[in-house]
Amino acid sequence: MEQIKNQSLLSFLSEPDCHTLKVTNPATMDVLGYVKTTTSEQLCDMIETAHLAQKSWASLTAKERAAKLNHWFQLIIENQDDLARLMTLEQGKPFAEAKGEVLYGASFIEWFAEEGKRAYGDSIPGHTSDRRIITIKQPVGVACAITPWNFPIAMITRKAAPALAAGCSFIVKPSELTPLSALATAQLAYQAGIPKEVLQVVCSSNAKSIGDTFTHHPLIRKLSFTGSTRVGKLLMAQCADTVKRTSMELGGNAPFIVFDDADIDSAVQGAIASKFRNAGQTCVCANRFYVHSKVHDEFVLKFRAAVAGLKIGNGLEDGVALGPMINQAAKDKVDNIIQYACEQGATLITEQKQHDGLFVSPAILVDVEQHMDIVQEEIFGPVAPILRFNSDEELIEMANDTPYGLASYFYSQNINRIWNVAEALDYGMVGINEGIISTEVAPFGGVKESGIGREGAKQGLDEYLDIKYMCFGGIA
After folding, report:
1. What percent of the chain has pLDDT over 90?
2. Which of 112, 133, 275, 416 is 20 to 30 A from 438 in CA distance terms?
3. DSSP secondary-structure letter at 310?
4. What integer pLDDT is reported at residue 353 of this predicted model?
5. Which of 315, 252, 319 is nearest to 285 (CA)?
6. The whole model's pTM is what?
7. CA–CA distance, 450 with 6 (Å, rounded to integer)
8. Where does the Aldehyde dehydrogenase domain start and stop, copy by copy (predicted)?
9. Looking at the structure, do residues 59 and 100 belong to the same domain, yes or no?
10. Secondary element (H or E) of residue 129
């Protein structure tokens, strides 16, 4: 790949054979390269190695680990363009958006490098005069993760950084669709002095086999997963046999709400940012739009005009806002969702041009009703169904009518309404007059069937730490 200036990032590329994984550009369908795959037997050896290496890594001071993490952060920043270009090539998102993800992913490394120094315990007043009680925090051990293709760097660093900062060793299986970004990021970690045995990347198209090994191996003490609710439930069930710690960031069905007192122009900008980032292929993107009847027509008119200005194409081209869907199955799903919604009574108000390859025109649907399938399922594509509402009570009932509870968004200028609605929405995250809410300094995660645990912020470090209570007796 001549587009990558730092060819050392690609030292993992291999010649094709029966033990390699082919990586394809979804925008052009060109083959980008091949990477070696990992068998279940090899993974077991990797886990053993990680178990031994974790002891030495945990014996370093938090400051020593932080120095290596900060060096990793700096190398990612220095190679931002190459990493972003590689991400666009294998994943499809626009180059500017990919650069933003590289910075976002790096921010977790920088944050947890410092946060790892603050894994504080407590001194607790004793229950008798001759006893003293303290608690300390220790790394859980070997942690593993399974990450998706839609954020191929950030979803890894958001898990790896706190694990490494806490003193854990870490093994990650990235999506078979986007292994290049993961391997290139790991190369920079090794250059920063993080041992290869402490941070390992597993490439495989057999997700079930790798997942079975992760969940059943007794030396794995923590599993973090970002993906579908269906798969997350299976992994949680399998982890029960060895009572592993788990973090689950699962499916979403985010409502985007526009009240009658909202700043409509601001709401349209937020809607574009939330809905069409990564061509709608994010778990926190707006999935269904609830617009008050008084401002419905104004919002739809301005929203449709903004959507019409989005350029579709190869993410390496200037001005492109929407890249391709990740594969044919994803494109077919979006096409079927639009078709079935229209069959159920929705009205398509945007022009759906036919594109070659995996590109899909952004779609806006009106006359959508709460009972329709498009409202009840996660779309994961550039489709915006819009529903009307007339009262706050009606809105809250419709917005919470889902088993998911990851992200939600609403626009209002009324401070009383803002507090009441923010508290009433049954979601782990609420964006208020804001369409982009992810940041390393805030806890990311959902409620209900959208998962358990939090990533980022100080809470993200605790996910990789055990609390040990020590009782000192016989104190005269």
Report:
1. 98
2. 416
3. -
4. 87
5. 252
6. 0.96
7. 38
8. 19-469
9. yes
10. none
Question: In this structure, are strands 20-24 and 122-124 parallel, antiparallel, or unpaired?
Answer: unpaired
Half-sphere exposure of 196 (CA within 13 A, CB side): 5
Residues 245 and 285 in one domain: no
* Catalytic one of 97, 101, 115, 249: 249
Q: What is the pLDDT of residues 431-445, one digit of tens each?
A: 999 999 999 999 999
What's phi and psi for 88, nearest 5 deg? -65, -40
Residue 427's pLDDT band (boundaries 50, 70, 90)? very high
> What secondary structure does DSSP assign to 324-336, as a single string?
--SSHHHHHHHHH
Instruction: Give me the half-sphere count of Cα atoms (radius 13 Å) on the Cβ side of residue 80.
Output: 17
| Residue 266's CATH number | 3.40.309.10
Domain with 422, as residue range(s), is 254-439
pLDDT of 148-174, one tens digit each?
Answer: 999 999 999 999 999 999 999 999 999
Is-contact 326 150, C-beta < 8 A? yes
Please indicate, yes or no, whether residues 435 and 454 belong to a single structural domain of this protein.
no
* 475 within domain boundaries: no
- Angstrom distances, CA of residue 185 to CA of 83, 99, 339: 8, 14, 40
Is 2 a domain residue?
A: no
The predicted pLDDT at position 3 comes to 87
Gap between the Cα atoms of 332 and 339, Å rounded: 11
Domain match, 165 and 244 both: yes
Residue 7 per-residue DSSP state: G
Active-site residue flag, 249: yes
In a domain, 1, yes or no: no
Whether the CB-CB separation of 341 and 374 falls below 8 Å is answered with yes
Distance CA 447, CA 389 (A): 24
Q: How far apart are CA 476 and CA 470, in angstroms?
A: 17
Paired residues of 277 in beta bridges:
none
Report the alpha-carbon angle 241-247-251, nearest 5.
Answer: 110
> Is 476 domain-assigned?
no
Q: Is 17 helix (H, G, I), strand (E, B) or coil?
A: coil
Q: What share of the chain is helix, strand, coil (3-state, %, to 5)?
A: 40, 20, 35
Amino acid at 36: K
